[in-house]
Amino acid sequence: VVAFGINRMDISQRKGGYPVPPGASDILGVEFSGTIEELGSEVSGFEVGQEVIGLAYGVSPSNSATLRYLIRTIGCLCRYVLIRYSRAVTTCLSQQIEYLTLAAGNIIPKPKNLSWVEAAAIPENFITAFQALISICELKSGEDVLIHAGASGVGVAANQLAALYGAKNVITTASSQQKLDFLHNMPKGSTHGVNYREQNFAEEVAKITGGRGVDVVIDFIGPDYWEKNIEALARDGRMVILASMSGPEIAKVNLVKLLYKRIRVQGSTLRSRSPEYQAALIKRFWSECRSHFENDELKVYIHKTFKWTDISEAHKEMEANKTMGKIIVEIS
């Protein structure tokens, strides 16, 4: 692995607030760019030495004994590929291992026009945003979208994908005018921005849409935004909740509003999905979006890059909530 991204789930997992799904590794980190070291006998479409990016959601060795066993029996791992870390390092956060074994369905070719750092920023954020907007909410051209945490990694990806798939109004929330300007100035960015510290986003949505509301809401906040999200949604609106940063419980829920508006609400964590689901989603994402990365229509925005030995600083940077784009760690 040459580089990997830092995600909000890494922070939560480190603090004990994100239970790892059964079968997944307890090692922090879920996305990477790197080079294939070995292939299982049934893997096709890839070759040793090929540059790839991917999601490390599946089983991976967490100690040297397991590592040696996997290397000895790699011939039995017929649907898996082996990707090499440059070296083993122990940080204050977790132990990084030398090899990563994962299903072939979880990797895709690295775009040749992107650096290792840029490529590492694609998998988790863009595939999560694609799943929420396109797979779950089935966004249609001409519909209106509200994207919370717009300057986060997933938020930046969601803004671009919403524009790419023809959304009419792409409304995003952020904590500062600097972040809102950044999102609006992206070639495929937001059409409207709302500073949630100073404005009521439900009221702003009503103004922008002429009182109709948005068709899709992508939320990471949870309880604190529930009522305003329901208010902001149009009839037959869809909302995907990808995180619950304001807590696990909603004090009161008015079901009449959901019934009257025929609202559909779905929670989703991509990491808990089956290997088959992940592989199918990744395949669809890449078939629809690959050319847009290769012609720079979809762009990667890097907030800051850290060395592997400074990974604790990378976590602190994310916890400060000042990011505009992706935090990447390079292995050197």
From TrEMBL:
This is Enoyl reductase (ER) domain-containing protein. Pfam families: ADH_N, ADH_zinc_N. One of its GO terms (molecular function) is oxidoreductase activity, acting on NAD(P)H. Gene3D superfamilies: Medium-chain alcohol dehydrogenases, catalytic domain, NAD(P)-binding Rossmann-like Domain. Keywords: NADP, Oxidoreductase. The keyword Flavoprotein does not apply. Residues 1-329 form the Enoyl reductase (ER) domain.
